[in-house]
Amino acid sequence: MNYRHSYHAGNFADVVKHAIVALILTHLKRKDAPFFVLDSHAGLGAYDLAATESEKTGEWRDGIGRLLAEPNPPKELGDYLAAVRRLNPEGDLRHYPGSPALAAQLTRPQDRLAFVELHPEDHAALKRRFAGDRRVGVHHGDGYAALKRLLPPPERRGLVLIDPPYEAGDETTQLRQGLAEALRRWRGGIFVLWYPIKRRSVVDRFLADLAMLGPPPTLVAEVTTRLGEDGDRLAGSGLAIVNPPWQLDQALAVLLPRLATILADGDGRHRLDWLVPEANHSSV
Ligand SMILES: C[S@@+](CC[C@H](N)C(=O)[O-])C[C@H]1O[C@@H](n2cnc3c(N)ncnc32)[C@H](O)[C@@H]1O
Question: Any residues with CB less than 8 A from the CB of 152 and at least 6 apart, and which?
Fold first, then answer.
């Protein structure tokens, strides 16, 4: 396990993912009934952008750095940017919420959260960070195994984020099998799968394989920040969203083009399609 998210926290790929996760959590809060959040590959929880790893790459500058500098951000970013600002009460950007800190901020006392992390140091840090939050369970181990163990949740509503590092050669196979198993247990859950865009043909194959599982309605949302995918460097950030909340597609139709403009230097593009169309889909 070499991957450490601290090098990449707050980069353009993170902000696309986190902005969409925030929109989904906001939607879930429209009903008072409690919901469950499972983050199967949780990372550290939150990141110090002044730490050596972040300083070394400086990737956050072209991600959250750009969004916070935007004079007129779209309202669809409201809750997400407010969560980032709450972590930085002094004003200057120093701390960035990973998906766990974002979810913890954007949920209510009646909601429940489970964070799973395999790296022992990151798991220990995650456990320390959320020690005082009784809504949160922090688990050490394999996120795919946790999908089996923790689903379906008794709340019967909520969000599962699957955000692996794509270090292992068979990560997409593990992810597909993990999703298949999770859907067998909980077909009504909202599942968000993040994927890197490095080469279009690889992404197309990944999405076609997902469609072969016969999932419920699934929306594909992508932002690419440069043209010419060479297979090595990250060109874009993609999310497959199974059972997206009602009208998320409309919010993303506004948000994604704005993100593509803000996060790229003229070559930004977005994609918003149904991998599995929404017919007969009702709000979760
Ligand atoms: C992309 S990072 C997660 C970032 C986090 N979701 C966020 O948005 O802030 C992927 C994380 O998965 C962890 N990881 C790798 N393999 C894992 C596995 N099999 N189960 C759980 N976590 C794993 C890595 O240590 C890393 O912290």
Answer: 185, 186, 189
Q: What tokens appear for 274 in the block?
A: 């149904």
Name the helix (H) or strand (E) containing 125. Answer: helix 120-129
Closest CA to 159 of 119, 112, 222: 112
- The CB density around residue 13, as the number of other CB atoms within 10 Å, is 23
Assess whether pLDDT exceeds 80 at residue 172: yes
Distance of CA 73 to the CA centre of its chain: 20
CA of 164 to the centre of ligand 1 (A): 5
166: exposed, middle or buried (Cβ count in 10 Å: 0-12, 13-18, 19+): middle
124, with CB counted inside 10 A (0-12, 13-18, 19+), is: middle
Return the closest-CA partner of residue 252 out of 7, 19, 5, 91: 19
For 202-243, write each residue's pLDDT tens digit.
Answer: 999 999 999 999 999 999 999 999 887 777 889 999 999 999
234 lines ligand 1 (CB under 6 A): no
Distance in angstroms (rounded) separating the CA atoms of residues 152 and 159: 11
pLDDT (0 to 100) of residue 264: 96
Write the CA distances from 102 to 76, 80, 196, 244, integer angstroms: 15, 8, 21, 19
Evaluate: CB of 137 within 6 angstroms of ligand 1: no
**Backbone phi, then psi, for 196, in 5-degree steps?**
-80, 145
The catalytic residues are 163
User: 75-112: per-residue pLDDT in tens?
Assistant: 999 999 999 999 999 999 999 999 999 999 999 999 99
Question: Do residues 178 and 162 make contact, with C-beta atoms less than 8 angstroms apart?
Answer: yes
